[in-house]
Amino acid sequence: MSGSISLPPASSPPGHARALLVLGLPIIGSNLAQVGLHTVDTVMMGWYGVRELAAVVLAAGLFFVLFVVGSGVSYALMGRVAASLGAGDETQVRRDTRMALWLSLGYAAAIQPVLFHSGALLRLMGQEDDIADLAQQFLRVSMIGMFPALTVAVVKSCLSAFERTRVVLAVTLIGVGINIALNWVLIFGRYGFPELGLRGAAVSSVVVQLVTAAALVGYAARQPQMRRFGLFQRLWRPDWEAARTMARLGVPIGLTALAESGLFQATALMMGWIGTVPLAAHGIAMELAMLTFMVHMGLSSAATVRAGRAFGRHDRAALRMGAWVAQALSLCFGAVVVAAFLLIPGPLVALFLDPAKPEAPEIMAVGIALLAVAGLFQLFDATQVMALGLLRGVQDTRVPMWVAVTCYWGIGLPASYLLGFTFGGGAQGIWLGLVVGLACTGLTLIVRFWRGPWCVAR
C-alpha cells in the first residue's frame, strides 16, 4: 500500500521480539496508566475510609464489567484494521472505524439505566445496604464517563493497528496526572473545594476520560499521515454492512470479556458475603493483579496487530513465529510477577493502606494471603490473554467466546464457591477457583490457535 503506516515484517525471532516490543511497550504503558486511574482511586479511597474503599471496589468492578463488554467492538476493530492495512484496503479501515464508534456509543447509551439503578442491583447480589448505596453514588456520577471511555477504546485500538502507540501513552499519562491532582482536591476537599469523598473520585474520572477522548480523536483526525484515511468522515452516515461485520466479531469478544470480568466481579460479591475487610483486601490484591495483567494485555494487543498484518498478507510463517515469540515474552514477565508476589507481598499491599486505620492489620494479612494465590494464576492468565490476542488477529472470536463462558462460569465459578464456602477455604479458596477457571481457558484457547487453519502449514 502506498504510504502505509507500518513496521516492516520481521523475519527472525529477535526481529519479531523487537517489533512486538516497539509496538507493545507503549501499549503496556498506556494500559498501566489507564488502570492507574482506578488504582489512584483505590489508594486514595483506602486513605479516606474502609467502607468507601469497599464501595468503590464494587462500583469500579461493575463499571469495568460493563465497559469490557462494550469494548469488544474496539478489540475487533484492532484486528480488522491491522488486516486491512496488511491487505492495502484503506476504505475498509474508514468504514470499520466509523461503525465501531456507532456501536460503542449506542451501547454506552443503552447501559445508563443499569448504572443509575446500580444500588438495587448490588443489594440483590447480597451486598450490605450502605455499601450498595455508596457504590450507587459513585456510579451515578461516573456513568457519564462511559461515553468517552468507549470512544477512547475505539480510537486507541485504531491507533494501535496503525502502530501509533506512543501518542496513546503520552495522552494517558497526562490523564493520570490530572486524575491524581483532581482526586486530591475533590476527595479530601483541598484548596477551598468541598470534601466530596467517593463522588469526588467519580468526578475526577469523568473529567480525565473526556480530556483523553478529545485528545485522541483530535490526533486521529488531524495527524498528517492519518488524515488521508478520513476516519471520521461523514460519521453520521450508517454503513450497515460494516456495522454487521463489526457486531459479528465484536459481540463475541465483549461476551468473552464479560465471562472473565464477570467471574472476577462474582468473586468480589462472594468476598462481600464474607465481610467488608475481605472485600477491601480483595480489592487491593485485584488492583495489583490488574496492573500486572495490563502488561500481558499490552503484549496481547501487539500480537493482535502483528498477527493481523501477517493474516492480511497471508504470511503463515510470520504468523507462527510471531506467536511463539509473543508467548515467550508474556510468560517470562509472568514468572517475574510470580516471584514478586511471593517474595514481597507485604510492601505491595501496604501501598494501599493507611496504617493508622484500625482495620489495616487485618486487611494486610488477608491481602498477603491473596497475593500468594494471585502468583499461581499469573502464568495461566498470561496464556489465556495471549491466546485471545492471537485469535483476534486472525478474526476468530466466536469459539473463544464459548470456551470462556464454559471454563469461567461452568468450571471457575463453581470451583470458587466450593473451595471458598463448601470446603471452608474462605478468601483464599475463592481465589483458588479463579486459578482453575483461568487454567482451563488458557490451555484450551492456546491449543485452538496452534491447531487452527491459519497456523497449520498447507
UniProtKB/TrEMBL annotation:
GO terms for biological process: monoatomic ion transport. One of its GO terms (cellular component) is plasma membrane. Pfam families: MatE. The chain crosses the membrane at residues 53-78, 99-118, 138-155, 167-189, 201-221, 279-300, 321-343, 363-380, 401-423, 429-450. It is a multi-pass membrane protein. GO terms for molecular function: antiporter activity; xenobiotic transmembrane transporter activity. Keywords: Antiport, Cell membrane, Ion transport, Membrane, Transmembrane, Transmembrane helix, Transport. Its main location: membrane. It is found in: Cell inner membrane. The keyword Thylakoid does not apply. It comes from the Bacteria. This is Multidrug-efflux transporter. It comes from Paenirhodobacter enshiensis.
